[in-house]
Amino acid sequence: MYMCVGSFSYVDPGQKVRTVEYVADKQGFHPILSHVPPEHPADSESVAQAKNRHYQLYAKIAEEHANPHPELISAPLETQAVAEARAKHAQLFRVIAEQHARIAAEREALLREEEEKQHLQELGQ
């Protein structure tokens, strides 16, 4: 009597590893599906050491990047053209502020003068 025994594994649509054990004989093909995923083989000593080293390096890099070094961050350098433009802007701002203060003082003086004229007209009536 001729008989063939074997097994194979595959990943199903649910991303689970399935193993099929089978017997094939003159009566046909008889598969038995295992719903228990196969055990992963144990890591060898060198694989375990490599994994451990990898995790250590990963943790070190993650820690370094979790706390950025603000002292290493620098502002862009100011060119001569930018410095001159900034100084010109500051000077124009001062001139405009002085003009606004002068206009406000002149307006205040005009309002006082108008109030005095109105007061004198009220007294003269």
How would you describe this structure to a colleague?
This protein has 125 residues and is an alpha+beta fold. Among the domains are: 3-34, no CATH class; 78-125. Helices cover 54% and strands 20% of the residues. It contains 2 helices and 3 strands; from the N terminus they run βββαα. Strands 1-2-3 form a 3-stranded antiparallel sheet, with no helix packed on it. Strand 1 (3-11) and strand 2 (17-25) form a beta hairpin. It is elongated and about 140 Å long. It starts with a strand and ends with a helix. The model has no long low-confidence stretch (mean pLDDT 87). GO terms for molecular function: structural constituent of chitin-based larval cuticle. It holds the Pfam family Chitin_bind_4. Keywords: Coiled coil, Cuticle, Signal.
Summarize the structure.
The protein is an alpha+beta fold and 125 residues long. It contains two helices and three strands; from the N terminus they run βββαα. GO terms for molecular function: structural constituent of chitin-based larval cuticle.
